[in-house]
Design goal:
about 300 residues; mainly alpha; two-stranded parallel sheet; two-stranded antiparallel sheet; globular; binds zinc ion
């Protein structure tokens, strides 16, 4: 098996380099009234950041990316819409199996990151014949958090720096796997969603399978409820979920936070636009696109991957 190591040096820096580049001059001006020391720090960080990105780019030359259309019979532009009745049936099935197989097992974040990275590497390798080795480092803060308050985590496409902003409980393995798929070079959101799902769903590990199913269910519910928080809660209440899981799903859409405020709304719109400019369908790729992808794959007769990978 061919092995390609992406060094990802920037991911090992104690503070996000992008934060130092943007933040150090501002911080020294605010705190010390001086601009020079901040700019020296920023210039040093920029040099390291660019150097790290250049090394990664060089290492990536030989990578053969997954051909989604060939492997799964579907890609960003060939999604078939999942009928609403099928979506509701899938939600019920997911709720039942999540409740039956419920586990409270939780690894520490660092361990989750290592395991999820290994599974992602293995899943991609069985399609492309290449092991793409990347860093398992995760940080919990970057300045991006201030700009995109709706994001659960981020991956800096240039340096591969990954941040997870909050403890997502049962969903955390999926969120980390999603960001790590970006780090392995899959920049489109739909691709990160499905690779994360397949890597965890096929793992045979109860905690990680649970995380993949929880993501699938919450994305289906988001489509059914559209952006209506009250409808989302009604959908959750209608499912045969264990109380602990029902509470968790309700917690995803707190009623009092229904209005995200003008800045978050504007940033969200901007983000949707950016996605459309990069050959994606927009923010809908996270939920509608993701669930339609699994639906299309399950019904495909050209996919080379076993369709059981999209099993409930
Ligand atoms: Zn993403």
């Amino acid at each position: 098996m061919e092995r390609i190591v992406i060094p990802g040096r920037a991911t090992y820096s104690p503070v996000a380099l992008s934060d130092l580049i943007v933040g150090a001059p501002m911080a020294t001006r605010l705190l010390l009234g001086a601009t020079v020391p901040g700019q020296v720090v920023a210039a040093g960080a920029l040099g390291y950041y660019v150097g790290s990105a250049a090394r990664d780019w060089y290492a990536r030359r030989g990578v053969r990316p997954v051909d989604f259309q060939a492997a799964f019979g579907v890609d960003v532009d060939t999604l078939q819409p999942m009928p609403e009745g099928m979506r509701r049936a899938e939600c019920r099935e997911l709720a039942e199996v999540l409740s039956d197989d419920f586990t409270v097992a939780r690894r520490p974040r660092e361990e989750t990151a290592k395991e999820v990275n290994r599974l992602l590497e293995r899943y991609i390798a069985q399609i492309t014949g290449q092991e793409i080795v990347t860093s398992s480092e995760v940080r919990s803060f970057t300045l991006t958090r201030v700009l995109f308050p709706f994001a659960l985590g981020t991956c800096d496409a240039i340096s591969g720096d990954v941040a997870i902003f909050q403890d997502m409980d049962v969903l955390e393995p999926h969120v980390i796997a999603h960001e790590f798929a970006h780090r392995k070079g899959y920049l489109k959101e739909l691709h990160a969603q499905v690779l994360a799902f397949f890597a965890l769903r096929t793992s045979g590990d109860p905690e990680l399978v649970q995380s993949a199913r929880v993501e699938r269910l919450q994305r289906n519910l988001a489509v059914l409820a559209d952006s209506d928080a009250a409808a989302f809660h009604r959908e959750v209440d209608a499912l045969p979920l264990r109380p602990a899981l029902a509470r968790w799903f309700h917690g995803l859409r707190p009623m009092e936070a229904a209005d995200p405020g003008p800045v978050a709304t504007a940033m969200r719109k901007l983000y949707d636009q950016r996605m459309k400019l990069t050959g994606q369908n927009g923010i809908s790729d996270y939920d509608r696109g993701f669930t339609d992808f699994l639906w299309t794959f399950r019904n495909s007769d050209t996919a080379t991957q076993p369709r059981v990978h999209a099993a409930i």
